[in-house]
């Protein structure tokens, strides 16, 4: 998941005040959900205990907030340290797979604070996850038929990368990405326009470091907003 924030009133404050404000929001939101009748485990981080990458205990909603906060206050230089020495980063939408820290740093630069490409805001909506013991991936490596060997290799290769990396915790985060573009975006006329889309990120952690990341975001939503694609016909809805 690429990270950052849109400029707003809060963004004119010093970085430490921004960090404090976002932490305060998470705690307040968690308390509000708890009052609404949800179980404390669902009311993310309501007790203000920090459980991010540098915390202790089970990771949770505050992990996602920590991820975003660190990118905003520290940028690409800081966030790459949340990844293990041996890791796989995969953006499925861009067909982008990275296993090198320097490449990951370069990939994050266009989405950080002060980027010439635009102003970006990512907000985590939901965190599902839990402990995993000591696990590694289970793979279907044999061509199931219907693909040539070359096709099977092409479409499965990135998925299989890092399968030997063990993990002790996992999560799925759903998030919103809102971006005000200063340049055209993936070949689409986007300069000066703002787009919003949803995405989802799957993480595998080992000792509170990311060993596997798979992210998917809805490119079609962005293309629709930029006038380059048609909105879907929701034929399944009752008329």
From TrEMBL:
It comes from Zhongshania aliphaticivorans. This is SnoaL-like domain-containing protein. SUPFAM superfamilies: NTF2-like. It comes from the Bacteria. GO terms for biological process: polyketide metabolic process. Pfam families: SnoaL. InterPro entries: Cyclase_SnoaL-like, NTF2-like_dom_sf, TAT_signal.
């Amino acid at each position: 998941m690429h990270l950052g924030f849109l400029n707003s009133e809060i963004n004119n404050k010093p970085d430490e005040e921004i960090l404090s404000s976002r932490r305060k929001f998470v705690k307040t939101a968690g308390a509000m959900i708890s009052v609404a009748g949800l179980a404390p485990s669902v009311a993310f981080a309501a007790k203000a205990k920090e459980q991010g990458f540098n915390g202790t205990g089970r990771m949770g909603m505050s992990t996602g907030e920590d991820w975003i906060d660190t990118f905003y206050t520290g940028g690409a230089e800081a966030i790459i340290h949340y990844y293990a020495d041996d890791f796989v980063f995969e953006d499925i939408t861009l067909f982008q797979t990275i296993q090198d820290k320097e490449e990951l740093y370069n990939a994050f630069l266009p989405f950080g604070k002060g980027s010439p490409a635009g102003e970006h805001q990512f907000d985590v909506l939901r965190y599902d996850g839990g402990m995993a013991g000591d696990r590694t991936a289970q793979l279907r490596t044999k061509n199931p038929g219907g693909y040539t060997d070359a096709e099977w290799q092409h479409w499965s290769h990135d998925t299989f990368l890092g399968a030997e990396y063990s993990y002790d915790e996992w999560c799925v985060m759903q998030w919103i990405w809102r971006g005000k573009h200063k340049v055209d975006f993936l070949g689409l006329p986007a300069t000066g326009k703002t787009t919003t889309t949803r995405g989802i990120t799957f993480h595998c952690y080992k000792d509170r470091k990311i060993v596997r990341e798979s992210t998917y975001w809805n490119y079609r939503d962005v293309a629709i907003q930029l006038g380059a694609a048609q909105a879907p016909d929701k034929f399944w809805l009752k008329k």
